[in-house]
Write a structure and sequence with these properties.
two-stranded antiparallel sheet; 2% strand
Amino acid sequence: TIPDSMWITLLNLSGECPLGHYSVVGKVLIGVIGLFATAIFGVPIGLLGAGFEEMVEEAIEDTPDEERTALPHASVTGLGATERACYEFVNGIGSKAARWFEIFIYLLIGVTVTIGIVQTVEGHETWLSSVESLAVVVFTAEYAIRLVGAGADPEFASSNGFVSRVRFFLSFYSVIDLLAIVPYYLAVALPGSWVDDHDGYFRMLRLMRLLKLDKHVPSISLIDDVARLKRNVLMVAGYAAGTLWILFNAAMYVVESDDNSQEIDPLPLYGCVDNCTMAVRFKTFFSSFPLTGIHLTGDFPLIEYGWPGRFVLFFMVIAAVGVVSIPSGVIASGFAEIVQSKSGVQTSSSKAAGDDWYDIRWKELEGVEPPPSRFGPRVDALQFKAKEYLDGTQVDGVVVRTKASAVGRLLFVSLIVANVLAVILESIPEIDYIVGNERGNAFDAFEAWSVFFFSLDYALRLFSAQKSRDALYSPWVYSQTFFGIVDLLSILPWYIEAVLASSGKLSGDEARVFRVFRIFRILQLEDFVVAFSRLDNVYRASKGVLKATGLMALIIWIGSSALFFIFESDNPNFRECDGSVPLIGEGGSLGCYDFESTAACNAVYPGMCSQTVFTNMPSTLFYVAVFLGGEWGVVDFTWRGKIVCIFLCVAGIALYSIPVGTLFDSFGAVIGLVEEEDEEEDDEEK
């Protein structure tokens, strides 16, 4: 019906596409909505949120970051040589051995976190367990050294060495260390005890070692600074967002707690096995709270609502989503501001954003003539001609091309576009069947000719690089630039595929992979429209902030994944059983949903019970990455999982997105600088 279509279209316009099985015409319309209409539809929502934020900031000025006065530590003079040596060694101070030990600890943290993740996969429970055992010994030794050297650490220093060690023992990082290593010794000392019974929980504690990295790259520990910096805005915006959340949650509870119009999958954890409806999800005010929070983030994994629920959600999309997102945005901007101020990120007047050795050297070569070829003037002339054919000649700041160069450039662009289209068309079975999917078909012939021309272009660019300022007059430098790497990648897979095919070591699947590699030829258009080649400048311009924000995003991702895995790995809402297994037991026998865990279900019904999601840490990492991207593929959590869900809705998604936002900001800054430089050059010419 038209009302049903309006409901789904509203979600499409808000940036959601919960349905995907459209006709070709429907897919085209959805594409148009995604490319254009969504942005236009979002303007009033964005204006509402921006206007509210502007009013709040005008009414209440941000509280500046409070200056911290250092606590008066006791003098650290008179320390023993052993204490000072231990402190310097574990903190990478004073010697190469100390620095290498610190790097080794960082690497070992990464290795043990990876082992802890892989060991949650069925059949890999003991994978590299000997490495984990060795790591525990190393971390124990590190902890002991830190304990001995605590008296030399200004953070714990005291005139009494015992007091210094007590301070260290009670510190945050000490607790993290103990939580990561003590369970291992308990399991060894008490085999078959409750420690073994809860091995999965203790295994997840190893992931807390990631927090140790925060001491060296501050990230999570800066959140309190953000709270102080933005506390007044957060109080007002948080109050408004919280009020709207509660009001809309109450409205959704009222209209959906009795909504039996739409049938949904069984939710045994919520007490429903057959003929379940939306009323099960919204049966209490508190059970509906995380679902309303998910909708307020702009995501709609659930769409099976009656018209009263759709009516409430309409106003939620229009009026509330922009306002509720403000606290998350304030947290994100405050964090980026704190990190930039503490890392001293700034751009000098003599150095543009993202400049490094290449940019500096390129500017130094302005007005410098290219070096002569070692093979004589004839080769020099050929190099100049090749350079002129490929890039034209600069005349008063304008690129002038010969007819041959202009025609060659047009044909090369056409060849790139044709190659991209060929990859797309070849992936369609019907077209591939018509052309003939045997080796040597029309696609293969076109590919061979394309590789010939791309190889010729690559060879000419290497040959003429000695006359190109963009290559710093060096073929070796050209081969390492964005364009050099892209040019090589456009031809190398074909040669590798040819060698493997001639040796008989190429299967159909492997050949398909090499064919898909051709799609990267679209990057050769960078020679005509600058975009991705600026990404290296973007990274250099933002790497200071990315270190802290990237570590924080990693900690949030892995930490939230560990919690979801612990809380949801045996959630019966995500359990499936063979058709011969009863859902609910009768006459003393247990059914699929009666067991506390899937493992217990399989013990009675071998191989007939399985979890659909959160089966292991790699699976959970995938789902949580989707959640942190603002999409919720599953929502029927346990009450503990709902708490994690609410945290991600309130702050986790915003904090996780900061690294991407930083890259976008830097990308805009770098492109803006390029445009300003071009405008300055145009003004000088005038």
